[in-house]
Amino acid sequence: MMIIAHRGASGDVVENSPSAFLAALRSGADMVETDLQLTLDGHLVIHHDTSTKRLMHVRRVIAREPLVRLQALCYVNGEGMLTLAELLELIDGSLPVNLELKAPGSARALVEFLAGHPYQGSMLVSSQHLGELDVFHRHRPDILMGPVINAWSAALARTFSDRPWQFVSINHRGLRPETIHRLQTIGLKVYVYTVNDPQEMHQLAAAGADGIFTDQPSLAVRELSATARGSKPGL
Length: 235
What we know:
11 helices, 9 strands, alpha/beta, TIM Barrel, eight-stranded parallel β-barrel, globular
C-alpha cells in the first residue's frame, strides 16, 4: 500500500509549505499530494484553501490577487507560498506528485503550464470538479487522473462508467472493504484520505487499499511493513 504525503508531511509543519515537502521527501513516502489554486493573473500556486486566512492570518482570496501580492505574504512559519514551478523544482522527480485541481480553470492553466515547463517526473492529476478532469484529459490523456469523492454511490457508478480514469481518491469515513473491492474491479486504484490513525492504516492495508493519504508519512512508514506497503504502482 502506497503512503502518500498529504499536502506534504503536514502533520508537524505548515501544510503545503516548502518545509512540508522537504519533510515528505525525507519521510520515506511513496508519493506527494498537493493542491493547485489559480491566481488572478493566471499562475498556479500551491495552497488548499481559496483564501490565505487560515495559514497566513491575513485574508486574501487567491483568485482575486496577482501572484506578486501573494508572494509578499508569509505562512506562520515564515515561509512563502510556492508556485507550481517552484514545487516541481523542489521535488525534482524524486517522488510522484499528485496535483489536485481546486479552482475553476485550473485544468487549462495546468495544460498550458506543462506545455511550457515539461516535467520529467511522475505526475497524477485529481479533482472534485469532474469537468476540470475532462478538460485536462482532452489535452493530456498521457497523464494519470482520477476524481476525489466523499463516498461511493450508484449515481457515481454511472458517472464513472464512461470516463478514462485510473484511480479514485475517497474519504476514509464510512469506507467499507467491499467498496474498495468494487472500485478495483472496475479498474481503479483506490487511494484513501486522510488517514493518521495507525490502527486504521493497518485496517486499510488489510482491506487491500492501494494507498493512503496521510499527514504523518513518517509514522505510516514505521507502522506499515514492506509487505503491507507492497510494490509501487505504475502508478
